Amino acid sequence: MTYEVTIEPTGEILEVEEGQNILDAALRSGVYLPHACGHGLCATCKVDVLDGEVDFGDASPFALMDMERDEGKCLACTATPMSDLVIEADIEFDEDARSIPVRDFVAEVVRIEEFSPRIRGIFLKTEGDTIDFQAGQYINLYVPGVERPRAFSIASTPDDSDPLELNVCLVPGGEATTWLHESLEVGAVLKFSGPYGRFYTRVSKPEPFLFLAGGSGLSSPKSMILELLGAGERRPITLVYGARDQQDLYYRELFEGLDERHENFRYVPVLSAEPDDSDWEGMRGFVHDAASEIFDGRFEGMKAYMCGPPPMIDACINTLMKGRLFERDMYMENFFDQSSAQDRVKSPLFKTI
Amino acid sequence: MANKLNMRDRYKLMTRLGWETSYQPMDKVFPYDSYEGIKIKDWDAWEDPFRMTMDAYWKYQGEKEKKLYAIMDAFSQSNGHLNISDARYVNALKLFLQGVSPLEYQAHRGFARQGRHFTGEGARVACQMQSLDELRHVQTQIHGMSHFNKYFDGFHDFAHWHDRVWYLSVPKSFFDDANTAGPFEFMVAIGFSFEYVLTNLLFVPFMSGAAYNGDMSTVSFGFSAQSDEARHMTLGLEAIRFMLEQHEDNVPIVQRWIDKWLWRGYKVLSLVSAMMDYMLPESPMSWKEAWEVYFEQNGGALFNDLARYGITVPDYAEICTKEKEHLSHQVWGILYNHTAAAAIHTWMPDDAKMNWLSEKYPDTFDKYYRPRFEYWRDQAENGNRYYSQTLPLVCQTCQIPMGFTEPDDPTQISYRVSEYNGDKYHFCSDPCKAIFDFEPEKYCHAWMPPQQIFQGNCGGEGLPAVLEHYKFNLGADNMDYVGSPDEANWNLWKGLNGSVSGDVKAS
Questions:
Q1: Which of A164, A195, A225, B176 lies in the 20 to 30 Å Cα band around B206?
Q2: What is chain B's Cα-based Rg?
Q3: Which strands form A119-126's sheet, in the order they lie side by side?
Q4: Which of B112, B111, B96 is nearest to B161 (CA)?
Q5: Mean per-residue pLDDT, A166-193
Q6: Average model confidence (pLDDT) for chain B?
Q7: Any chain A CB within 8 A of the CB of B12?
Q8: Where are the domains of chain B?
Q9: Which of B288, B284, B300 has the alpha carbon at shortest distance from B327?
Q10: Interface contact A37-B224, CB threshold 8 A
């Protein structure tokens, strides 16, 4: 049994399992609600119940008093829904976020492209309507024989998503990516659901865009950058893309072409394991060092969008913070699933990084 | 038709009540938030941690108060003090009321002042609310412990003592140091170091100690305060984050304050370490365990995050790691020797407690402290209970008697000396000396209890005159627990061996 919880003022909708508290469900869906102690003592996560019934759970009588219970308040960290709910929480209304309901889709593989020895492009034609999404969001793809769906960012733009493009990097020992690389053929029918995630461009904010990507983490930036340039964006956009070597450097022509045609777009490929004696004349090393070099170590006044392997993201966060760019101006791709909220070590200082 | 405002907008309207002053320039209206060198580019980047409006605040706190006082009254009416584990436990409460509750009041004053002096209205509102919380805390603590004052010694003049008695100059001088700092340093000292990093090492020992020893009144206070503490912790963290993000020049200043105030707080907590390991008849955890969980693990996670801002763990953390094996034993030894001049009772642990200490401190207790304590216990049992008749040398910075040993040699007392303007100043450790050396002018005038006694500013010559000046009830407030009126009363009430007839309450 699951209940639907609508969170105002953003209108986001969560599925909450029987017995699951609202905070847990929200965090697992990538919706940040203010919270601190996590077990009903501090009242940081107090929210208004506008409609529906909750079980208050083990909320301390000092943190949630009787009169507040009567007024329809509850602590998100202990309250479980007894019906569908509408709650109001103290969260910022983000004008760049669209609230798109998650749907299930069935699609046929119409094309497969080998971008590099490790990265494969998969193109899906959905039955019926194509998926509505924001550039940067991801889908959960059901891979035959694999129990849980896997998250893949969408590499196509929202207005050119038929077929829908996914870039799949072969993860050594990875059940799903191995199957997608070795067994998937054109004509196969796959199921997926989406869109998910809070990774999208903050176009209403004035800052220029800095994309830091590595490996198959190019999918989202590709979608986001193509959409921005397609819409006539004039602010500076920089893409620093890290790959191992020239073989791995996929979509090079695409981005070099954009770089030539658009004065405000800059493409900076950087290779970490290119042989020393090769003909490569571009940058060598890691994404964070390359970014630091081209911006002289200063990132104040930008918005940074990061996707790639966790060590790359971690190194980039350190570099950006050293260059005076902080959490509120950083966005990264987080794949949320049922286990992530619990497994993640809670940072005392940061909400998302 | 007007829509109802959402929570965030409503909050903004209810708390952003400041304006750009025009009769006087802003920096004259708020003159104190720039001299420390902290640079703020944009006060609007301050993110409010409390998310509570004043009208809601009064309503909730009022309701909380009603609930808490009902529990305390019930505790009193049912003679709750008779259900505690042992009368020795009450000494933990005495230490709290004498040493900690006055700090709550100092915090009330400190936050009230910052609530006036920050240019940013968000920071001002948050400080004002915490100021009110702290006032509520000190009031409820005094109210809660007034019940114990009816039945036990050592409570009656806590405020008078806090300003005079030697061991209470440890917490007092700590907070005086913070309250005479600028507003940003105060936020690092109290909001961050004390309320965020160290608060669990203070609250958990006292509150879980209360729970383990049957004191439900204090436990309820703990719950009531905890619903505020989370807000206080968030404020401390936001203050740090704000300073670090506003300007890179702030980073080294904040680092120096973190280094200073974590050490200052740690030294104050050494009193708590002795309380935890020796005063609680039933101990929820040892000081060493608490230090490992709340500082090494939780603090470690925090410093991992702060590292991204360029902040590092203080260099001396290693000293604390070494000292966690020794701290509580050494402080208890100091208190035991000087308990003739203290408004708490001390005693030597019984065998069961010594065994517990051996188990919790396998590398140090049996080797260094058990032989000493068994000897002292034998001496006391043979009628030779030792009370020091001389005044100890006290560290110029933390004001604790110089009884701590070298981090790498537990048989050698640690002494450090600095010279300033031709005078010598003594310190218990390298960090205390470093704090003095950076700002000698601030500490060379410190009110040092032994010096003040020798100068004749504490009632006159000799211990009796000083204790009279302290307003101690001699033989009741001070001395060993064994033979005290507290012990006699407890035995009488509980029908235990050694009870004597009649009420022997001293005062």
A1: B176
A2: 24
A3: A150-153, A138-142, A189-196, A103-114, A119-126, A164-169
A4: B96
A5: 93
A6: 92
A7: no
A8: 17-494
A9: B288
A10: no
Query: How close, in Å, is residue A57 to chain B by CA atoms?
Result: 16
- Start-to-end C-alpha separation, chain A: 32
Structure tokens at B56: 């809601």
3-state secondary structure of B347: coil
What residues contact A201, with CB distance under 8 A and at least 6 apart? A96, A135, A136, A209, A224, A227, A228, A305
**Half-sphere exposure of residue B223: CA atoms within 13 angstroms, side-chain side:** 23
**A304 and B CB contact within 8 Å:** no
The pTM score is: 0.88
Query: Hey, what are B431's tokens?
Result: 């960090």
The encoded tokens of residue B474 equal 């001699």
Q: Are A176 and A165 in contact (CB under 8 A)?
A: no
* CATH topology (fold) of B17-494: Ribonucleotide Reductase, subunit A (1.10.620)
Distance CA B182, CA B311 (A): 21
Give per-residue pLDDT as tens, B33-52: 999 999 999 998 888 766 77
Q: Does the beta-carbon distance from B67 to A324 stay under 8 Å? A: no
- Residue A241's identity, in one-letter code, is Y
Torsions phi, psi for B67 (to 5 deg): -65, -45
Among A187-196, A288-297, A305-314, A342-351, whose mean pLDDT is lowest?
A342-351
Question: How far is residue A235's CA from residue A204's CA, in Å, rounded to a whole number?
Answer: 12
Chain A window 171-210: which residues touch B at a Cβ cutoff of 8 Å? none
Q: What does chain A come to in residues?
A: 353
CA dihedral B210, B212, B213, B219 (to 10 degrees): 30
In angstroms, the CA B343 to CA B331 distance is 16
Amino acid (one-letter) located at A251: Y
Residue B203, burial from CB neighbour count under 10 angstroms (0-12, 13-18, 19+)? middle
Of B51, B67, B308, which has the smallest distance from its Cβ to A318's Cβ?
B308
